[in-house]
From TrEMBL:
InterPro entries: GWxTD_dom, TPR-like_helical_dom_sf, TPR_rpt
Segments crossing the lipid bilayer: none
Pfam family, one: TPR_8
NCBIfam families documented for this protein: GWxTD_dom (TIGR04514)
Organism: marine sediment metagenome
Gene3D superfamilies xref list: Tetratricopeptide repeat domain
Name this protein carries in UniProt: GWxTD domain-containing protein
Length: 652
C-alpha cells in the first residue's frame, strides 16, 4: 500500500510538470478539417504536395488528393491496410502524449525516424544536465549515415528537451550547472564528460560516431548535413508522379538543402512607453537567400525567435515571428540584397537579469544565425535608444525603438556616415553626460553638449562631419555611474542604411501587454505579482484563452479552489493540460472521486501505464479495490508490452 501511495505521489508530480510545460499547438478548430490535417502531416508533406493542395478548389479534389497522398506512401498496396499511415499516426500520438508534442525537438525526430535502435538516458548524473541519446541505424533510408547519435538535453536542467547541434552547441552546454568548471574551455568540458561518459562526449562533437576531434573545433558541416538529410527525408522518400493528376504546378522546382550558419548583426535596446518597459531588437542577416518559384517571383520564409531567459535558465518570455517575403520586382529584390533587411520587433519586459537570444532562420535555404546579449533591468536601469535619426511620430501606435511621439531609426551595425548625426533618447530625470572616446587614441575624446530636456526624457544630437573616422566608445553617465556603453563606427565613405521590416501595434494593445507581463512574473515564480497583474484585466478578457494561464498562477500559488473554479468554467476547453490541472487540484483539495474522473478523461489522450497506476492508487484509497485491481492489471500489461516492443526494436 505504501509503495502504491509513493508511486501515486511521484506520478502526480511528474504529471503536473508535464502539464505546466505542455503546449496547445496541436489544437485546431473543428470547423477547418483541412487545416487540421495539414497540421498533422506538416512534417511529412513535401513542398510540391503542399503547393498542389493549396491550388485545389473543391472538396472532392481535396479528398481525392488526401487518398492519393497516403496511397503514394503505402509500402504494401496489396494489403487491406496502409502500414505507413497506421505507423505515422501511432508516432504522432506517441509524440503528442510522451515527447512534449509533435513539434518538440524529440517529437519531430520521432515522427521522422521512429523508435530509436537504442536509447540512453543520462538524467541524474552529477556531471551533466539531463540528456537523452537516441541511436539510429540508417536501415537503407536514402542519404542517412549508417549510424547516428542524436542528443537531446535540458539546458541547465530547466524546461523542455532541446536538440543538441554539434558545432552550434558544445560540451559546455551539457556540463551540469552544479558542476564547477570555472572558465573551462570547450575542450576541458569535453574531457570532463569523457572520463565517465565517453559515448555522450562523442555525441557533443558529431552525430556521426567516430567523427570529429574536439581539439580542432566542432564538425558543423557534417552534422549539419546529416540533420538536413533527416529533415528532408519526406522529400526523397515519396514518389510524386501522382501529382500530375491534379492541377498543374508550373514554377515549382525541386529544392536542395544545406545547413549553414550565416553572418549577421543584432542590436538590443531598452525603452519606456506609456508606463511599460520594452525590449527592442533589430536583427540583420548578411544574406537573405531567396528562391525563384516562377518568372520574376522570388520568395523566402523567415522565422525570428526571441527568447528571454533568467540566469537560472527559465524561459521568461518567448515569441516567434514568421515572415513570408515575396517579390515580383527584380529591382526590389536587388535593393534588398544590396542594402539588406533589418527585422525589428519589441516585447514588454519586467525587472530582472536575463540572457536574451534572437535566432534568425531562413527556412527557404536552412540558413540561420543567433544574436545573444545579457541585459539587466532594475530600479537603476536608465533606458536609452541610439540611432542616426529621431523621427517625430503622428501615430500613437506601439512600435520598435519608439516612445510617445518619437522613434529612433537605428542601424544594428551601429555604423554612421560622416554626413549623418548621432542621435538618441535617454529616459532619465537627471541630465546625463555623454562622451565619444576613440578606441585606439584614448586621448581623442569628445563630449556631446547638445542635450535637451523634452518632457520625461533627454534628447541628444551630434553631427559627425567634424568627427574623425574610427571606432568609438559611446559612453553615457549619470551621478550613479555609466548607464550605457556601446561601440559605434564613424566611416568616411557612404554606406546605405538597411531597409526596415517591422510591425506596430495599436494603442489599445496595452491590455495585451498587461497579460504578457503577468505571464512573465508567473514564469519567474513571482506568483502574487502575476495574480495582481491578471486582476488588472477587465472581466471580458478572462476568457477561454486566458483562463488556463490565470488558473496556472493560482495553482502555483496553492489556491487550488480558485484554479478549479476557473478551469471548470464552461467556456474553457478541457484539453490535456487543463484536465491535468483539474485532476491535480482536485487531489490537493482531497476530492479523490473528482480527481479520478479527470484522470479517467485523460486516458483518451493515451492509455498509458502511468495513468492506470494513478487511477489504481486513487480507487484503492477510495475503497474500490476491485476497480483498482483492474487498473493496476492494465498498467502491468501496458508496461510489459512496452518492454517487449523495446526488446524487439533492439533485436532488429
Amino acid at each position: 500500500m505504501k509503495n502504491k501511495q509513493k508511486l501515486l505521489l511521484a506520478l502526480l508530480i511528474s504529471v503536473f510538470f508535464a502539464s505546466f510545460l505542455s503546449s496547445s499547438s496541436t489544437s485546431v478548430k473543428k470547423s477547418d478539417p483541412w487545416k487540421k490535417w495539414l497540421n498533422e502531416v506538416h512534417l511529412i508533406v513535401t513542398k510540391a504536395e503542399k503547393s498542389v493542395f493549396y491550388s485545389l478548389k473543391t472538396e472532392e479534389d481535396k479528398k481525392r488528393f488526401q487518398e492519393q497522398f497516403w496511397k503514394a506512401r503505402d509500402p504494401k498496396p496489396e494489403t487491406p491496410y496502409n502500414e505507413y499511415k497506421i505507423e505515422f499516426y501511432r508516432r504522432l500520438k506517441h509524440a503528442d502524449t510522451q515527447l512534449e508534442g509533435p513539434n518538440s525537438a524529440m517529437g519531430r525526430i520521432y515522427i521522422l525516424l521512429g523508435e530509436p535502435f537504442e536509447k540512453k538516458n543520462y538524467s541524474g548524473y552529477g556531471d551533466v544536465v539531463d540528456c537523452e541519446l537516441w541511436i539510429y541505424r540508417a536501415d537503407g533510408r536514402p542519404g542517412l549515415p549508417p549510424f547516428m547519435h542524436l542528443l537531446f538535453y535540458r539546458p541547465r536542467n530547466f524546461g523542455n528537451y532541446r536538440q543538441f547541434h554539434p558545432g552550434v552547441h558544445n560540451a559546455l552546454d551539457v556540463i551540469s550547472p552544479g558542476y564547477s568548471v570555472g572558465r573551462a574551455s570547450q575542450l576541458k568540458a569535453y574531457q570532463i564528460i569523457k572520463k565517465s561518459l565517453p559515448q555522450l562526449a562523442q555525441a557533443t562533437v558529431s552525430i556521426i560516431p567516430g567523427e570529429g576531434d574536439p581539439r580542432r573545433g566542432q564538425f558543423l558541416t557534417s552534422s549539419g548535413s546529416a540533420f538536413a538529410q533527416i529533415h528532408t527525408l519526406p522529400e526523397r522518400e515519396v514518389e510524386r508522379n501522382y501529382l500530375k493528376n491534379f492541377t498543374a504546378f508550373t514554377g515549382i522546382v525541386d529544392v536542395t538543402y544545406s545547413a549553414k550558419e550565416i553572418g549577421g548583426k543584432g542590436l538590443i535596446s531598452i525603452s519606456e512607453n506609456k508606463g511599460f518597459t520594452f525590449l527592442n531588437y533589430s536583427i540583420m542577416p548578411d544574406d537573405i537567400d531567396f528562391r525563384r518559384i516562377a518568372e520574376n517571383i522570388h520568395t523566402a520564409d523567415i522565422t525570428i525567435n526571441l527568447r528571454i531567459e533568467d540566469l537560472e535558465g527559465r524561459t521568461i518570455h518567448q515569441q516567434e515571428r514568421n515572415i513570408h517575403l515575396e517579390y515580383d520586382d527584380i529591382k526590389k529584390k536587388t535593393e534588398i540584397e544590396e542594402r539588406k533587411l533589418a527585422f525589428k520587433d519589441f516585447a514588454p519586459i519586467v525587472e530582472g537579469e536575463y540572457n536574451v537570444s534572437i535566432t534568425f532562420s531562413n527556412k527557404t535555404k536552412e540558413g540561420y544565425f543567433v544574436h545573444k546579449e545579457r541585459i539587466s533591468i532594475n530600479g537603476d536601469t536608465v533606458p536609452v535608444l541610439v540611432g542616426f535619426k529621431i523621427k517625430e511620430l503622428e501615430s500613437d501606435n506601439f512600435m520598435p525603438f519608439s516612445t510617445e511621439g518619437k522613434k529612433v531609426l537605428a542601424d544594428p551595425r551601429l555604423i554612421f556616415n560622416k554626413a549623418e548625426s548621432l542621435e538618441g533618447l535617454i529616459f532619465s530625470e537627471q541630465k546625463p553626460t555623454i562622451h565619444l572616446r576613440n578606441i585606439v587614441d584614448t586621448n581623442n575624446t569628445f563630449e556631446i553638449k547638445d542635450i535637451v530636456k523634452q518632457e520625461n526624457l533627454f534628447v541628444f544630437r551630434q553631427p559627425l562631419m567634424d568627427i574623425k573616422s574610427g571606432n568609438y566608445f559611446l559612453s553615457i553617465k549619470n551621478d550613479k555611474g555609466e548607464i550605457y556603453k556601446k561601440i559605434i563606427s564613424v566611416i568616411s565613405f557612404h554606406v546605405e542604411k538597411p531597409l526596415d521590416y517591422e510591425r506596430s501595434e495599436a494603442a489599445s494593445s496595452e491590455l495585451n501587454y498587461i497579460f504578457v507581463i503577468a505571464q512573465e512574473y508567473l514564469n519567474k515564480g513571482e506568483f502574487d505579482t502575476a495574480i495582481e497583474y491578471f486582476n488588472k484585466l477587465p472581466e471580458n478578457l478572462w476568457n477561454s484563452t486566458t483562463l488556463p494561464v490565470i488558473a496556472r498562477a493560482y495553482y502555483a500559488n496553492k489556491d487550488y479552489e480558485k484554479a478549479v473554479e476557473l478551469l471548470e468554467k464552461e467556456n474553457v476547453v478541457k484539453n490535456y493540460s487543463v484536465l491535468l490541472f483539474l485532476a491535480n487540484s482536485s487531489l490537493e483539495l482531497k476530492r479523490k472521486q473528482k480527481a479520478a474522473e479527470y484522470f479517467e478523461m485523460l486516458r483518451k489522450y493515451g492509455d498509458t501505464a502511468e495513468l492506470n497506476n494513478v487511477l489504481g492508487a486513487l480507487y484503492h484509497s477510495l475503497g474500490e479495490r476491485e476497480k483498482a485491481k483492474v487498473y493496476w492489471e492494465r498498467a502491468e500489461k501496458l508496461e510489459k508490452s512496452k518492454k517487449k516492443n523495446l526488446n524487439n526494436n533492439k533485436e532488429k
